[in-house]
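Why do we care about 3D structure at all? Because function follows from shape, and shape follows, mostly, from sequence. That is the central idea of this module. The next example makes it concrete: a single protein chain, its amino acid sequence, and then its structure expressed as C-alpha cells.
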Amino acid sequence: MSLADLRSQLPDYAKDLKLNLDSVLSEAGAPGLNKAQIAMIAMGSAYAARFKPLTEAVAAFAAEHASAEQLTAAKGSAAIMGMNNIYYRFQHLVSHPEYDTMPAKLRMNVIGAYKGEAKNDFELVSLAVSAVNGCGMCIDSHDKVLRDGGVSVQGIQSAVRIASVIHAVAVVLEQADAAG
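And the structure:
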C-alpha cells in the first residue's frame, strides 16, 4: 500500500492530516531539509509510531529518496532512541538525584558510528523519534548537537513537524483499522 492509498483512508475529520502529510514530505514543506533527510526522518518516525501499514508505505517512499545506508541509519536511530528515550525520560522525571550519578550501562555504539553530514542526518532522525517518544532530555541533547553541527533551526523544526504528522497519521489509521 502506498502513502497515497493510506492518505485516502484518512477519515474526513483528519482532513488536516491529509494536507499536512503531502506538505511535510516535500522540500517546499520541510524547509532546511533535503529529500533524503525528509525520507530518513519519515522512516524513523514511522518506526517510532509502530503502525505497520504506514511503516511499509513510508519505507517505499523513503527508498525512492534515500540510499540504503541512509535508511539503515534511520532504522538504527529509531532502534536506539526506542531504548534511550525510555531510560533518559526516567532519569529526567525521577526525583532521586542519585540516578544522575549512575552510568547508563547501555550500549549505544550506533550513535558514534556517523560523522559529518551523516551525523547530522542521524541526529535529525534521533530528534524526531525523541519527539514522538516524548523524551525532553533527549530532545534537548539532539537539538544542541544539531545546532552545533550547523543545522538551521528551521531544519530542526521541519524534522519535528514531519514526526508529528507521521505519528498523527499512524494514530488515526490505527484507530480506524481497529474500529473496522
